[in-house]
Amino acid sequence: xxxxxxxxxxxxxxxxxxxxxxxxxxxxxxxxxxxxxxxxxxxxxxxxxxxxxxxxxxxxxxxxxxxxxxxxxxxxxxxxxxxxxxxxxxxxxxxxxxxxxxxxxxxxxxxxxxxxxxxxxxxxxxxxxxxxxxxxxxxxxxxxxxxxxxxxxxxxxxxxxxxxxxxxxxxxxxxxxxxxxxxxxxxxxxxxxxxxxxxxxxxxxxxxxxxxxxxxxx
Length: 218
What we know:
Layout: E1 3-6, H1 12-21, E2 25-29, H2 41-48, E3 56-61, H3 66-76, E4 80-83, H4 92-98, E5 103-109, H5 114-123, E6 128-132, H6 152-161, E7 166-168, H7 177-184, E8 188-191, E9 196-197, E10 200-201, H8 203-217
Parallel strand pairs: 1-2, 1-8, 2-3, 3-4, 4-5, 5-6, 6-7, 7-8
Antiparallel strand pairs: 9-10
């Protein structure tokens, strides 16, 4: 079955609801330049503490300095780090040495075919890639949570070109998730606004989303 990551988790109640529906990963959003779902590092730590080992807890970070990411993870205590921007100081090797056993997922924002080369190069250094619809070149960076669909043909080429799991994000909801899975064939999908109503996790939308995932897989 296609793995499902529910992002922008904002409370223990939302975390438990997502897990009950079958989520294999939960996204906890720390400080970002824009976008939804940001919660405090204290709350991230509190939520990650109740997530069972069978479910991945993702710390979404906008930080570009590896030491700052290390310090943040040690406070938040997630088992996976989702790096939403490009690293400018330090290396993935530094991160692995400081945090053994913690998975590293790098976000690649699909803006053009140049993203393919970036994904291939990065894939050799991380545990997974997440393809999203942000844009790091805007005056106010978009590092996720845009609700926009990007070019899935580029995403499919990335899936076919790398040897690590690839998550697909960006404008996914029940009405297009089947098509997204057929066209991209990702390891997993990542959804935030597509299962929410007025910013709150909507159980009916969540259940319907998982139903569509099962239909696409079979």
